[in-house]
């Protein structure tokens, strides 16, 4: 396993985890589900076509 790749993934995911934990309960569930769906759709399109 590449330690630099692992460090980059960890550094990228920690802010997202922190933000999600602070937003939990403050925004409506439907909004958070919509954001997750849009992000997953965009990532899928990016992986499929780029």
Explain what this protein looks like in three dimensions.
The structure is a single chain. By secondary structure, this protein is mostly helical. The protein has helices spanning 3-23, 29-49. It has one domain.
Topology:
Layout: H1 3-23, H2 29-49
Question: Based on the structure, what is the oligomeric state of the protein chains?
Answer: single chain
In percent, how helical is the residue content? over 70%
What structural class do the secondary elements suggest?
A: mainly alpha
Biggest sheet descriptor: none
Count of helical regions: 2
User: Residue ranges: pLDDT <50 for 5 or more in a row?
Assistant: none
Can you tell me the number of structural domains?
A: 1
Mean pLDDT: 90
Number of strand elements: 0
Global geometry: flat
* SSE run: HH
Summarize the structure.
With 50 residues, the protein is an all-alpha fold.
């Amino acid at each position: 396993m590449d330690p630099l790749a692992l460090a980059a993934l960890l550094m990228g995911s920690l802010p997202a985890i922190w933000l999600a934990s602070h937003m939990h309960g403050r925004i409506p569930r439907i909004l958070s589900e919509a954001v997750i769906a849009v992000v997953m759709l965009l990532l899928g399109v990016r992986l499929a076509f780029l």
